[in-house]
Design a protein that fits this description.
7 strands, Rossmann fold, binds S-adenosylmethionine, globular, 5 helices, about 25% strand, about 210 residues, alpha/beta
């Protein structure tokens, strides 16, 4: 997917995004943030924050930086920040495949419905690992291609069409993790219809091990 097309697609969706994807995905967003048990002062990066629908879910005693490529989506997120007075959140327009943050800037990096919506998931995952501290958490909430051969074939067949709409359906979790330092700590199917996955990884870079 071409990044300019992705940006254009999501800026076009911005006006209707919450009506379509807000409710469908919200239970899993809430469950994901709840599962994190965020600590006071924790530094969180939300990649591909979209209209900022998850932002009110974060506790006000942590620090959230949220980025997105799409100006249209960020405008909606800004409106939401003002509405909910989210003083602990900072919004930035930034390409997740080339982030401007220093190495190890965050304790937790969250990507909700993002790795299949970016033009180069490898670059984005590499950047998420770089900006997260060793031993920090990298969370992906996403649909990943199914292990069932028939369903996987269907997902592969419809993926080119979906890519015109700004996302792909043929990406497996194994492909995302391949060659990275990520260690899966939890992987659970979540609603709607248990078709999506909550995947919590420990950033194993520099030999960091999961907490015992
Ligand atoms: C399916 S939406 C998910 C939005 C939000 N996380 C949610 O839970 O609804 C994918 C988002 O990723 C953003 N995106 C796509 N490519 C990106 C990139 N390279 N850098 C930053 N954001 C990107 C899109 O603009 C869009 O807002």
């Amino acid at each position: 997917m071409d990044p300019k097309k992705v940006e254009r697609a999501y800026s076009t969706y911005a006006a209707v995004y919450d009506h379509i994807f807000g409710r469908i995905f919200h239970e899993s967003r809430e469950a994901a943030v709840r599962r994190l048990r965020i600590n006071r002062g924790e530094r969180i990066l939300e990649v591909g924050v979209g209209t900022g629908i998850s932002l009110p879910l974060y506790p006000s005693d942590c620090r959230v930086v949220a980025i997105d490529l799409s100006a249209g989506m960020l405008e909606k997120a800004r409106g939401r920040m003002l509405k909910y007075q989210l003083m602990h959140v900072e919004l930035m327009r930034m390409d997740a495949s080339q982030m401007e943050f220093e190495d190890d800037s965050f304790d937790t990096v969250m990507a909700a419905y993002v790795v299949t919506a970016v033009s180069d998931y490898r670059k984005v995952v590499t950047e998420m690992i770089r900006v997260c501290r060793p031993g920090g958490r990298i969370i992906m909430l996403n649909h990943f291609s199914n292990g069932n051969k028939f369903i996987a074939a269907c997902e592969k067949a419809i993926s080119p069409l979906c890519q015109h709409l700004g996302f792909r359906t043929d990406l497996s979790l194994n492909h995302v993790l391949e060659g990275t330092s990520l260690l899966v700590a939890k992987s659970e199917k979540v609603n709607p219809m248990r078709f999506w996955h909550f995947v919590e990884c420990v950033n194993g870079k520099n030999g960091a091990a999961p907490p015992s």
